[in-house]
Design a protein that fits this description.
Radius of gyration: 17 Å
Distance between the termini: 24 Å
CATH class: Alpha Beta
Order of helices and strands: HHEEHEEEEEHEH
Organism: Solimonas terrae
Domain SnoaL-like: 2-123
Shape: globular
CATH topology: Nuclear Transport Factor 2, Chain: A
InterPro entries: NTF2-like_dom_sf (IPR032710), SnoaL-like (IPR037401)
Protein name: Nuclear transport factor 2 family protein
Structural class: alpha+beta
Strand content: 35-45%
Pfam family, one: SnoaL_4
Length: 193
């Protein structure tokens, strides 16, 4: 239970530090060789932190994450954590200000090194999303081209596109072959394979 509590704290800290733009503290939630795969970024965690910090300077978007209580499996110094997350993005676009709400899960490979639990790999799994205008109705331009994006994150992908950010080709959506492969790989890793 102590390991699960420590892992849950790391998962929660990631969210708090990310949303509060506490970049140096955020770096401490992942191992040095950690990686992350989200809708808009796939690669080393250090690169994600740098890209997030850079994006925050423009203030064209405000991001907020709400995470649930993680489901955690521990095997020695390795653990799997899966957490429900709601990602809220308020973006100023040329056609108006919008709120995008994305429902997803974070699937984490977590490892204890030198007595400290940190995330080694995080993959976001997208379930569904919605788009709401901040004021007034949305112009038709917001609905144009939605069919080019996966249904599970079409509004998020479209909002990111309007900010000049394309979704990663490695994006994982719920109930997909990529998700089945992610789970298989995570289970193998947990068992030391």
């Amino acid at each position: 239970m102590e390991a699960k509590a420590e892992i849950a704290e790391v998962v929660n800290n990631w969210t708090f530090f990310r949303d509060q733009e506490a970049w140096s503290s955020l770096l401490g939630t992942f191992h040095e060789d950690g990686t992350i795969s989200l809708s808009w970024y796939q690669g080393p965690f250090k690169g994600f932190v740098a890209a997030s910090e850079n994006a925050s300077k423009g203030k064209n978007a405000i991001v907020k994450h709400y995470v649930g209580i993680p489901m955690i499996q521990v095997n020695g110094d390795r653990a799997l954590s899966e957490t429900n997350v709601t990602i809220m993005l308020r973006a100023k676009t040329p056609a108006g200000e919008v709120d995008t709400t994305s429902y997803a899960r974070f699937f984490d490979l977590v490892e204890r090194r030198n007595g400290s639990w940190k995330i080694l790999k995080r993959t976001a799994i997208y379930e569904r999303d919605r788009l709401d205008p901040v004021q007034g109705p949305l112009p038709d331009v917001f609905y144009k081209g939605l069919e080019q994006y996966p249904e599970e994150l079409r509004f998020l992908a479209s909002s990111l596109h309007k900010l000049g950010i394309e979704i990663s080709p490695a994006t994982v959506v719920d109930k997909s072959p990529a998700l089945a492969e992610l789970y298989r790989g995570g289970s193998d890793w947990l068992l030391g394979s």
